Amino acid sequence: MIREELEGIWHIILKDLRAYYFKPPNISWGILFPLVLALAFTLRKPSGLSDLAPGLVAMAALFGTTSMEAIVITFEKRVGALERLMLAPISLEAILIGKILGGSIFGLMISSVMTVISVVFLGVSVKYPFLFAVSLLLTVLTLSALGSLVAVSVREVFEAQTLSNYFRFPMIFLCGVFIPVESMPMPLQWLAYVLPLTYSVNALRQTFTGSLQYADLAFNLAALTIFLLIFMAAAARLLRKYLE
């Protein structure tokens, strides 16, 4: 039973990566959009672009996961492919995990490219590579689960993209990508700390800069884990309700 579940998850990942994710427009969108947005914000202070490196990586993970994750699941719901997957001898949870891992792998690839760009062209360095990898892995898993939750909440692809933009763009400006959360008005700080990207940016920034505080990093990683579990549980519940 466990072997069948793992094989099913693996084949779902391969199918999604080949059919949806590994397309040049998707890859270029995930990389170019964060860079263009960051450049627009640093025209007044070109030297400040290197300070944005952790936020750039987090933003690449955000768009790399949620943009395609929302499209893939919503599209397969519309054409009936998701229902056909249920004919396989695997559980609904395994299907959802396969979808989330497919989006996570693509998001990890996009954010890794952004990391290389930051190191090579912006002159930054990752002080704690292992902790950086753990932080990035939790980030893409959490954001991919969020994309899955959005996808199972709507019926059409354009609805998924619209709903995704409702939280993606506020997260970019509230979660410390461009402006430190501590410098925002208190109501905006409260809002920032109920958004998962805030904890991603905080964790990645510590592993980039070297100003590591283990208790703070552990708190950020724990917060991401809680978000991941909440998003997965909510997505599984909505998906089960849809398939009933």
Distance between the termini: 23 Å
Strand segment tally: 0
Hey, roughly how much beta strand do the residues contain?
under 5%
Low-pLDDT stretches are: none
What is the share of helical residues?
over 70%
Q: Quaternary arrangement of the chains shown?
A: single chain
The string of secondary-structure elements, in order, is HHHHHHHHHH
Q: Which whole number gives the mean pLDDT?
A: 83
Q: Total number of helical segments?
A: 10
Shape: globular
Layout: helices, strands, pairs:
Elements: H1 2-21, H2 24-41, H3 53-79, H4 81-85, H5 92-121, H6 129-153, H7 157-174, H8 186-192, H9 196-209, H10 214-243
Please describe what this structure looks like:
This protein has 10 helices and no strands. It is globular and about 50 Å long. The mean pLDDT is 83. The protein has 244 residues and is mainly alpha-helical. The two termini are 23 Å apart. The protein has helices spanning 2-21, 24-41, 53-79, 81-85, 92-121, 129-153, 157-174, 186-192, 196-209, 214-243.
Features:
about 80% helix; single chain; mainly alpha; about 240 residues; about 0% strand; 10 helices
